[in-house]
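SSPN protein, Hemiprocne comata. Tokens?
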Amino acid sequence: KSSDSSKTQDSAMKKKQKKTKGDPKTGQEEESHTCCGCRFPLLFALLQLALGTSITVLGFLMAGISSSLLVRDTPYWAGIIVCVVSLVGFVMLCISYQPDEKTCVQFTVKLMYFLLSALGLVACVLAVAFAAHHYLQMSKFTCDTIPDSCQCKLDTADPLGRTFVYQDAADCGSLTTMLNLYLLLQMGLNLIAALVCLSACFVMWKHRYQVFYVGVRFYPLTATEGQRQKV
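Tokens:
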């Protein structure tokens, strides 16, 4: 008898565990504020911090090559924006999760993270466009070294053609080689950062409108339908 009672208790415990595991409400509550087993913005914030730091450092290195480079050609500003987005993501990790976004702080930080991710996406796309345009121009340049600068022309046969002058450059060959490499790196890093920011915006939107609220809104209906079927 004792063995039979222990078996029935074990079977009852297993059934309870299966019910709790298969409960859609508890699963949705856990998935609503976690992603891949961790709090949502952790992976995106780490990627944004690494990419933003790389873009910023590379932008300042490009600015050190020549003092005549424009701000649009040294997109450290895009890297700074992405770094700020990652910091907001880390702040979101420090805020305790509340269902339905009951606290003003949680809602404000989530909104800031979404808007700044969208801003970072736009900035990175602009940086890619500027770098690609400059790279295409440099592929057609004909450069000559003049004292303390490098003078480049798009069309040497045209006397009225546009001339680009890179100040503080003693060697045109090394300048064009390094600048082309930096521009390619900027295009690659900013493109990856733009994809990360786009993914963050998409996951934030999905987390807000498709996971939590749809589950809470439709779960009572499924529960009442199950109860009717049982009756």
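The radius of gyration is 28 Å.
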